[in-house]
Amino acid sequence: MIDIIDQINAIHREIGDRPVASGAGRSLLLRRVYDADIEDVWSACTEADRIGRWLAPIDGDLRPGGSFQLKGNAGGVILRCDRPELIKVTWGFGEGMVTEVEVRLAPAPGPDGGTVLELEHASPAEIVDELVRAHGPGGTIGIGGGWDLTLLGLDLYLHDTAFDPAALEDTPELKEFATRSCQAWGAAVQTAWGTGDDDLAAAVAFATQHYAPDATGDER
């Protein structure tokens, strides 16, 4: 069983501005602590056989300058790989949609150990602005919700290397997590952009429909 509330509250969510290679950019920032040492988290995020156990099967040349492709997901080029602290890649779903993802790792402060993971997904400002024009802030909320699911999968895998992501698909637990995730990203959008309550509710519902189509988005 997943402790949904703890998993939602484990992630810090933030929306802001971050330059990308092409100029001005917008970013989503996620931060959480994993109960695993930094080398274990690094290995899970960089070794093909382990990536396939919690994210998706991956093909490519996994070294700086090499390219990669996640099955049924994004592909790109590895820009930096500084063990065990930094991974930076381009992240593209198609022509004209190339963005950048940076993962930063650091030992967690305090006596309990663990690893702080920060994931920042930065996109050219024109891509985000067009997404918002087309779909309102729901598109941004949906991207954040997708990353929440990714970080959930990593946590479950680090606690149980026999974890099978397929076992969670279409389960009530996953739908509740996705619903609450979209609500949490809605709050981040409101903080960043001052979105009105009615527009925010519509945006959260739009994003929730993608990940949890049977949910209403009204759970508290």
From TrEMBL:
* Matching SUPFAM superfamilies: Bet v1-like
Pfam families membership: AHSA1
Domain Activator of Hsp90 ATPase homologue 1/2-like C-terminal residue range list: 35-154
Record InterPro entries: ASHA1/2-like_C, START-like_dom_sf
Under Gene3D superfamilies, the record lists:
3.30.530.20
- Member of which family? Belongs to the AHA1 family.
Q: Which protein is depicted? A: Uncharacterized protein YndB with AHSA1/START domain
